[in-house]
Amino acid sequence: MHSVTSKLPQVGTTIFTVMSQLAQEHQAINLSQGFPDYDIDPVLLDKVSFYHGQGCHQYAPMPGILPLRKQIAGMYAAQYHTVYDPDTEVLVTNGASEAIFSSMAAFLQQGDEVIIFEPAYDLYAPVVTLFGAKVIPVGTFAPDFAVDWDAVATLCSDRTKLIVINNPNNPTGKMWGQEDFLALEQLVVRHPGLFVIADEVYGYITIGSRPFYSVSRFEQLKQRSIITASFGKLLHATGWKIGYCVAPAYLMQEIRKVHQFNVFAVNHALQHAIADYIADAGVYLGLPGYFRPKHRLLAEGLEQAGFEVLPADGTYFLLAGYRNLSDAGDTDFAGTMIREYGVAAIPVSAFYSDRYDGRLLRFCFAKKDETLQQAVSQLSGIKDRMRPGAAAI
Q1: Which of 51, 145, 198, 358 might form a disulfide with 140, Cβ 3.0–4.6 angstroms?
Q2: Ranges assigned E (strand) in the chain
Q3: In a 3-state reduction of DSSP, which class is residue 364?
Q4: Out of 3.30.465.10, 2.60.120.890, 3.40.640.10, 2.40.128.20, which CATH number does the structure's domain 42-284 have?
Q5: Does the domain made of 15-40+286-385 have the CATH classification 3.90.1150.10?
Q6: Where are the domains of the chain?
Q7: Cβ atoms 364, 16 nearer than 8 A
């Protein structure tokens, strides 16, 4: 019998896979995973076809094609009034996940510490572990998921290499205010060996009234930050796995070193199509107006069904509590909802390293209106059948 020593012994099948498989088994409406069930813009598809016809089938330049890097730099200049050099400070990646992976690979050393705010997207911690660093989780909790910056300050030391932030946050939908960034900036100034990875994949999907702040708007933070983002979220094309990151040149040169030996290049034709398409800023600046009605449709339906919907500022997720419906744990309740009501969501305990259970579920509303309406309809009777103390099935 052969064996191998795992570098990720605690990592198994993710809750996203489990819930999606259960949803498929029961033919449930899948509001658990964060991808649309509608088509992308035909205009973008036409551009993809055009560039395929132009013979863009060989390797693209390692950092990404220059027209796309210029468009990315232009987005930051126009929206956040900050400058990134497309030649030395922009990188096109194989999704935002690769941007995060390559950034961590470039800078983490054995024994480093990385602060991660929870609830957190499940990618961050395993990558930190993979490179021999230690995760320092910092919990935030409903209803407002506020950060205790005094507590964070006590966790920072000479061993702290990175702070990972996700703004707007998946799963909570919360966006940080200016005061949060000023507090983070103070930490960075105080600790010269500390850097920030800012996962801003949902930065253009704002659904509340709060303004979105990019770390690039704070000059001292910008000089110590790597920003990662995704065209999958911007263009409703998650399967393309095309993202990007921006960072000061002294950081970017190290990230590019990893990128060239990790994936080297990203789909050539798609880069050209995206560069052409986003020249019209309206295709992404219109995202709030597109998603707000979907959020409202799902939120109102869940509230009528007896859920307590938490306020959200951004992303295409919302959190809903079910304390008025059941005393079951969130994983059990999510399973019951799939089996009995045909709707899948993600238990929020999966986003905490200690599996803290606040009896909350995450729902994705990046779906057709008819999909959301059907989900709401199927859940409409839940408050009449469920009660606190009801056993999970």
Answers
A1: 145
A2: 29-30, 90-93, 113-118, 134-139, 160-166, 195-199, 225-230, 243-246, 308-309, 317-321, 343-344, 346-347, 360-364
A3: strand
A4: 3.40.640.10
A5: yes
A6: 15-40+286-385, 42-284
A7: no
Bridge partners, residue 343, by sequence: 29
Please name every residue paired with 320 in a beta bridge, in sequence order, or none if there are none: 309, 361
Query: Of how many residues is the chain composed?
Result: 393
- Can you read off the two tokens belonging to residue 198? 């800012």
**Token duo for residue 211:** 């303004």
| CA 60 remoteness from chain centre | 26
Q: Is the pTM of this model over 0.90?
A: yes
Strands 160-166 and 113-118: parallel
- Name residue 247's amino acid: A
Q: Tell me the residue type at 32.
A: S
CA dist., res. 106 & res. 194, Å (int): 14
pLDDT at 389 over 60: no
Express each pLDDT in 103-148 by its tens digit.
999 999 999 999 999 999 999 999 999 999 999 999 999 999 999 9
The backbone torsions φ and ψ at residue 29, rounded to the nearest 5 degrees and listed phi first, read -75, 125
Q: Give which of 253, 204, 262 is closest to 226, Cα–Cα.
A: 253
Q: Tell me the CA end-to-end span of the chain in Å, nearest whole number.
A: 39
